[in-house]
Structures are given as structure tokens and as C-alpha cells.
């Protein structure tokens, strides 16, 4: 018996051991998308619970298409695109705190923020919310801060990493410690550290507020591109190539990057490995460019720190991947992750769901701990002044934001009731935070419009209350013989009230879109005025030079 039991000593117990990838049916694909042919090593795709954005080919500049998440099927050739860049788009990222705002960087040395209405684009969008100018060469990668509102990190081919306040358009900090092109950048869980990999084969852990390099070391010996992600606030995972061109992954502690905690050889393929990490399940997904498979691993706290689980195998090679936020996953299917795969040989974007097989169709608490909510923990200035906070969390079951992460352990019924009451107190935190890009000269007019809208709402509520009171009075004063007739009138009035409520909701939505268009027009006018001032200044300088 001793010999038989020793054969099974190496089997690990894990609830994610049987995770499998589920490809989509044909009608669930995004078809006929002119996916970009750019050779830049980026994902070219970004997804959130509302939209999926895909970088496309367009003559004379850069563009990307934004589709509502449910708009699957064959895409029309004349589908509206975001076409404001003058060069190819190299990277796109959705705002983690506002599902309607997306950032893009381009070959034209700029970063631009765009507002996408809930219904999607009805025409080509070339008016941006704000433009960030500072890089002298093309901008290759962008990354949103995980806890601070409107903070973006960008890396360009000028060897610079810049931290921006997207609300004001100002540069918070410029990091110039890299002697060559930056291949990737990533924030840790609370945004207090920024990790980068560079063409000089080094990995660096940087304090993004001061720009000081806390630690650095040789990442992978190969000459190909390396990628980095944070696993928590201290540990890093990198992908790269060995001296003999074998693909590798390595685990690091960001306080000492001289030697990795663990290094694993994967295979001998030539495609760059892109890592994707899920903080909630502590699973890492590896997808290589040109590969057809997705490997996934589980992260643990003890050596060797990473364990292979399984892989999803497909015969179609991939060009890029978009990773869905956890709050966009389908909990009824036990879906713990969803990827949007861009095919290399076809103009197709294919959703791939990673599913844990469970017999019960009830909500699985052990699969869905509290995840990051679309609520910033602090403002850009608070973060830059030295304040650090963990991300605000929300329940995947109720959608209510909470402040702290509850350990996934057995709790009594009393503790469950107390936790529910605690979440109800903070229900207001689940409201979406919209960044304020209003120019100062428009504030009086905007406040006046807001007051007018509040007055209209109060009048509507008063009329609704009078109508309901009159209906109640009529109902009480009627005789038994007229009771059935009054009930019909009451139902008709309820239908009228529902229609009025829908009209009010539609009116409010139209007002929001109108305000956003006004902001865009004001931004365009301000930009025109700046250009006119620049032209007049240049003309005056030219006259002075002629006189001399």
C-alpha cells in the first residue's frame, strides 16, 4: 500500500484544475473587421462590460472600431470608427472607472481620450475629449492607474515614461531612466510601483511619483521583447526568451531584481508571450502571438510560486487579445475570464470563455471574491501628493461596492447578515464616476442648465404625486358597482405614468449626450483659438525678421 500511495503524492488539489476554454458559436463572432496589420507587439484590442474596441486598418491615418458588446455577427463595411489620429493606432485601453471613455496612443506622438455613447457610434468620431502631447516620438504603450482617477502612464520610442493627469492634460512626472525602448509597463495592485521592461534586457521597479528606480536587474537573456505584470503589490511575472531562444516565464520580488524567485522554460516557439493576470482567482494566462493556444497557471505563495493547470488549444493563430474585466463575466455560467481573440488569418474577433465546471447553477461564492469596482479610491492630485489606497471592491453577486476585501472562509449566518448590511450602507459607491472635463468658461452656463433640469424634475414629481392622489380619491369615492371601471382607469393611468417615466429617462439621456457634445465643441473652439494665436505669433515673428 505504501508504494501505491506514493504514486499520487504529487497531485495538487485545486478548484481551477479543470478549467476549460469555451469558444464561441459562429453567430457570436465579430466578423468582417479589417484588423490592423501593424507589426507592433501590442494587444490591439480592449474590452469592458459595454464595448469591445479593435484597432483597424484605414487609409491616411489611424483608426479603431468600437462595438457594443452584444453587437455580434458580420460587420458592415461602412461601420463608424474613431478616426482622429494622424498615424497608426498602437494601443487602446478603457478607463477602469468609466466604461464610456477610452484612451488611445498613436504613431503621431499623441495620446487621446474619447467618449463613446451607450448606443455606440453613429458616425465617424474625430473629436476627442482631450489630447496629451509631450512625447517626441511615437507612443507605444499606455496604462491606466488602478486606483487613482484620470492617471495614465505612457511609454514612447523617445525612451521616456510619462505620468499624466488626464483631467487637466498636465504631465505629473517624466521618468527618463531607460537607455532604450520600453517594451512594457505595469502598475502594482495599489499603484505605488511601476514595473517596466526595456530593450537593454533589464527589468526595473520604479516609484512613479518620484521617478526613482527602486530596483533593477537582468530580466531574460534573449534579445526579443519581454513583458511584465504585477501579481500583487510585491511580486512580478515576466515573459521573455533565453539565450537559446526558448520562451520563459519568471517570478520576481520587486525589492530585489538581481535574481528571480523561480524561472520556467515553456517551449521553443518564436512568438512573443503576453501575460494576463486575474487578481481574484490568482490565475495567469499566457497567449503567444502566432500561437493557437492559451496556457493558464495558478499562483501560490510558496515555492515554486507557479503551477501549470491546463491549456486551451485552437487551430487558428492569434494576433492579439482583449481581456474582459471580471465584472463583465457571466456568473451564471461559472465564467471566470473572457478573452477576445483577434485572428491572424481571418478578419474575425472571437470571444473565448474560461469556465469552471460546476453541477449547480447557483452563485458560486468561492469562484467570485469581491473584485475591483468602477469607482476610484482617490483623485489624481491626492495620489501624486503621496496618498495611497487599495482599490475599491464590489460584490459580483449584488454589484455593491465595499471598501475591504473579505476573506473567502466559512462565516456564520449572523456574519452574513452583518456583511449584507455593511454593503447596503455603501451602495452609493457602485454609481459610475464620470471624469469632469468641463472648461472653466462654460461652468456658469452648465450650472444654469443643471438647475433648470432639477426644477423640471421637481415639477414632474409634483404632477405625478397630484395624479396619484386624484386616482386614489376617485377610487375611494366610487360605489361597489363602479369598482371594476375605476380599476381599469387606474391601470390606464399607471401605463401613462410608466410612459412618462420612460420619456423622462430618454430626455435625461439626451441631455447628457447634448452636454457632452457641447464640451467637445468647446474643446474644438479652444483648440482653434490656440492655433490662431500661434499663427499670429509666427506671423509677427516673421515680420520682425524681415524688418531686421
UniProtKB/TrEMBL annotation:
Superkingdom classification of source:
Eukaryota
GO MF annotations, alphabetized: actin filament binding
Question: A Pfam family for this UniProt protein?
Answer: WD40
In this chain the WD repeats are located at 82-114, 132-174
Q: Does Repeat show up as a keyword for this record? A: yes
Q: Which residues form the DUF1899 domain?
A: 9-73
This protein's UniProt keywords: Actin-binding, Coiled coil, Repeat, WD repeat
User: From the record, what ranges are coiled-coil?
Assistant: 514-548
Q: List, alphabetically, the InterPro entries matched.
A: Coronin (IPR015505), DUF1899 (IPR015048), WD40/YVTN_repeat-like_dom_sf (IPR015943), WD40_repeat_dom_sf (IPR036322), WD40_rpt (IPR001680)
Query: Signal peptide span per the entry?
Result: none
Q: What family is reported?
A: Belongs to the WD repeat coronin family.
Q: Which PANTHER family did the record assign? A: CORONIN (PTHR10856)
The protein, known as: Coronin
Q: Which organism is it from?
A: Aphis gossypii
Amino acid at each position: 500500500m505504501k508504494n501505491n500511495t506514493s504514486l499520487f503524492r504529487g497531485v495538487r488539489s485545486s478548484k481551477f484544475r479543470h478549467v476549460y476554454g469555451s469558444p464561441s458559436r459562429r453567430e457570436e463572432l465579430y466578423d468582417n473587421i479589417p484588423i490592423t496589420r501593424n507589426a507592433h507587439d501590442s494587444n490591439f484590442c480592449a474590452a469592458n462590460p459595454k464595448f469591445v474596441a479593435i484597432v483597424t486598418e484605414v487609409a491616411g491615418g489611424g483608426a479603431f472600431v468600437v462595438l457594443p458588446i452584444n453587437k455580434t455577427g458580420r460587420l458592415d463595411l461602412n461601420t463608424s470608427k474613431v478616426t482622429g489620429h494622424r498615424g497608426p493606432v498602437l494601443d487602446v485601453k478603457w478607463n477602469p472607472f468609466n466604461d464610456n471613455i477610452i484612451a488611445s496612443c498613436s504613431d503621431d506622438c499623441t495620446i487621446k481620450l474619447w467618449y463613446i455613447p451607450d448606443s455606440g457610434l453613429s458616425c465617424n468620431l474625430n473629436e476627442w475629449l482631450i489630447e496629451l502631447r509631450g512625447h517626441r516620438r511615437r507612443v507605444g504603450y499606455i496604462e491606466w492607474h488602478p486606483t487613482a482617477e484620470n492617471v495614465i502612464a505612457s511609454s514612447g520610442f523617445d525612451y521616456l515614461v510619462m505620468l499624466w493627469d488626464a483631467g487637466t492634460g498636465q504631465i505629473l512626472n517624466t521618468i527618463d531612466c531607460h537607455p532604450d525602448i520600453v517594451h512594457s509597463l505595469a502598475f502594482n495592485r495599489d499603484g505605488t510601483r511601476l514595473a517596466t521592461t526595456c530593450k537593454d534586457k533589464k527589468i526595473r521597479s520604479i516609484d512613479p511619483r518620484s521617478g526613482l528606480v527602486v530596483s533593477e536587474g537582468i530580466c531574460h537573456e534573449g534579445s526579443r521583447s519581454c513583458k511584465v505584470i504585477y501579481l500583487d503589490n510585491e511580486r512580478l511575472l515576466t515573459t521573455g526568451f533565453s539565450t537559446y531562444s526558448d520562451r520563459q516565464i519568471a517570478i520576481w520580488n520587486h525589492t530585489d531584481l538581481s535574481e528571480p524567485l523561480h524561472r520556467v522554460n515553456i517551449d521553443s516557439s518564436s512568438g512573443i508571450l503576453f501575460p494576463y493576470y486575474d487578481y481574484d482567482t490568482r490565475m495567469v494566462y499566457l497567449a503567444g502571438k502566432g500561437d493557437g493556444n492559451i496556457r493558464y497557471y495558478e499562483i501560490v505563495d510558496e515555492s515554486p510560486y507557479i503551477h501549470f493547470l491546463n491549456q486551451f488549444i485552437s487551430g487558428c493563430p492569434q494576433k492579439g487579445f482583449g481581456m474582459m474585466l471580471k465584472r463583465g463575466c457571466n456568473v451564471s455560467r461559472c465564467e471566470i475570464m473572457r478573452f477576445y481573440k483577434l485572428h491572424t488569418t481571418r478578419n474575425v474577433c472571437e470571444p473565448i470563455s474560461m469556465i469552471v465546471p460546476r453541477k449547480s447553477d447557483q452563485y458560486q461564492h468561492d469562484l467570485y471574491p469581491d473584485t475591483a469596482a468602477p469607482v476610484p479610491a482617490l483623485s489624481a492630485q491626492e495620489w501624486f501628493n503621496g496618498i495611497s489606497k487599495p482599490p475599491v471592491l464590489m460584490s459580483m453577486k449584488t454589484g455593491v461596492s465595499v471598501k475591504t476585501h473579505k476573506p473567502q472562509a466559512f462565516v456564520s449566518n449572523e456574519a452574513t447578515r452583518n456583511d449584507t448590511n455593511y454593503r447596503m450602507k455603501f451602495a452609493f459607491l457602485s454609481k459610475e464616476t464620470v471624469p469632469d472635463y468641463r472648461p472653466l468658461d462654460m461652468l456658469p452656463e452648465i450650472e444654469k442648465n443643471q438647475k433648470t433640469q432639477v426644477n423640471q424634475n421637481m415639477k414632474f414629481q409634483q404632477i405625478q404625486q397630484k395624479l396619484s392622489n386624484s386616482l386614489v380619491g376617485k377610487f375611494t369615492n366610487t360605489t361597489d358597482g363602479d369598482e371594476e371601471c375605476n380599476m381599469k382607469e387606474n391601470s390606464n393611468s399607471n401605463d401613462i405614468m410608466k410612459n412618462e417615466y420612460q420619456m423622462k429617462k430618454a430626455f435625461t439621456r439626451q441631455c447628457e449626450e447634448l452636454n457632452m457634445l457641447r464640451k467637445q465643441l468647446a474643446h474644438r473652439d479652444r483648440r482653434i483659438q490656440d492655433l490662431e494665436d500661434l499663427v499670429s505669433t509666427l506671423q509677427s515673428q516673421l515680420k520682425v525678421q524681415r524688418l531686421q
